[in-house]
Specification:
about 290 residues, alpha/beta, seven-stranded parallel beta sheet, three-stranded mixed beta sheet, 10 helices
Length: about 290
C-alpha cells in the first residue's frame, strides 16, 4: 500500500515505520521537520499538507500526530495548541480525502482513553459514553473530525503506551531507580496501558483487515491499579517504592493534568478481542518479563 502517515516521529510512529517498510508498504511522512538522515530513502517526507491537492495516490492514511498532552500546563494557549495539533490536522486530512476522486480506502486515526473520563472501578468498553472534562472534549472533537471522512474510519482510543525506549515509562523509571517510586493518591485508580509491541501490531491488524471499522480501545486486557503498578515495578527493579504522593499535592503541582494520573480507567479492549486480535503482552507482569 501507499500510506500517508502523520506523527511518524513520535514513539508509536517511529516504531511503526520499520514494520510498514518490512511489509513493503510505501510511506509518505507528514512532518514539521524534514530529516532525511533519520529515515530510510523509501520514506518520502513532506512538511505541509498544502503540497497535496488530494489523496488519490494513497491507499490508506494513518493519523497519529498530536502535541504531547502531559508536557505542559493546560493553559488556554496550550489547550488551543492541543486542539490544533489533533482536531485541525484531522479536519484537513478528511477534507483531502473527501475531495479525492479515488480516496484512500482507510483512515486510521488516533484518539485516547481520555475520552471516557473517570469511572472508578467500573469496567469500560467502546460503548461507554464520553466524559465531560478537557481530555474527553478533546477526544470527542478529534474523533468527530475523523468521522467526516468518506471512507472506512478506525478510531484508536489509546491508553498509556509502555516501552523501555520512550513515552511515559522513560519518565517513570528514573524516579524508581532513585528509590522515589510510590503510590499516587489512593493508588486504587486503574491505569489503562498497552505495550508498544501490541500497539503496533493492533494498527497493522486494522490496516490489513478491512472488514473492521469504528472505535477500538487500544489497551491491555488487564488494566492495573496504581498501587499494583507501583508494587510490581518497585519489586522488579529491587528499589524502595514507599513514597505516597497525596492527590491534593498532584493537583497543586500538575493542575488539571493530574486527572491523567488520578482518574480510574478499567478499560477492556472488547472490539479488538472480538475481531480476533491476540495481545502478546496481556498483563503488567508479562510486560516486566519483556523488559528483563
Amino acid at each position: 500500500m501507499n500510506i500517508l502517515l502523520t506523527g511518524g516521529t513520535g514513539l508509536i510512529g517511529s516504531a511503526l515505520i520499520p514494520q510498514l517498510l518490512a511489509k513493503r508498504h510505501k510511506i509518505c511522512l507528514l512532518t514539521r521537520n524534514i530529516q532525511p538522515e533519520r529515515f530510510p530513502n523509501e520514506v518520502q517526507q513532506i512538511d505541509h499538507l498544502a503540497l497535496l491537492k488530494n489523496l488519490n495516490e494513497f491507499d490508506a492514511v494513518i493519523n497519529l500526530a498530536g502535541e504531547p498532552i502531559f508536557n505542559h500546563r493546560w493553559t488556554a494557549k496550550q489547550k488551543a495548541k492541543l486542539f490544533a495539533s489533533r482536531v485541525n490536522l484531522t479536519q484537513n486530512l478528511t477534507a483531502l480525502i473527501n475531495q479525492s476522486d479515488c480516496p484512500p480506502h482507510t483512515l486510521i486515526s488516533g484518539s485516547a482513553t481520555g475520552f471516557y473520563g473517570d469511572h472508578q472501578d467500573h469496567w469500560i468498553d467502546e460503548t461507554t459514553p464520553a466524559g465531560t472534562q478537557f481530555p474527553a472534549q478533546l477526544c470527542q472533537q478529534w474523533e468527530a473530525a475523523a468521522r467526516q471522512a468518506n471512507t472506512r474510519v478506525c478510531l484508536l482510543r489509546t491508553a498509556m503506551v509502555l516501552s523501555p525506549n520512550g513515552g511515559a515509562l522513560s519518565k517513570i523509571l528514573p524516579l524508581y531507580r532513585l528509590g522515589l517510586g510510590g503510590k499516587l493518591g489512593s493508588g486504587k485508580q486503574y491505569w489503562a496501558w498497552i505495550s508498544l509491541q501490541d500497539m503496533i501490531a493492533g494498527i497493522l491488524f486494522l490496516l490489513e483487515n478491512r472488514q473492521y471499522e469504528g472505535v477500538f480501545n487500544f489497551a491491555s486486557p488487564e488494566p492495573i491499579t496504581n498501587q499494583d503498578f507501583n508494587q510490581q515495578l518497585g519489586n522488579f527493579l529491587n528499589r524502595p517504592h514507599c513514597a505516597n504522593v497525596p492527590a491534593f499535592v498532584l493537583r497543586w503541582f500538575l493542575g488539571d493534568r493530574s486527572q491523567l494520573l488520578l482518574h480510574s480507567q478499567r478499560i477492556r479492549p472488547t472490539r479488538l478481542i472480538d475481531a480476533g486480535f491476540e495481545f502478546k503482552v496481556e498483563n503488567f507482569a508479562a510486560f516486566l518479563d519483556y523488559l528483563s
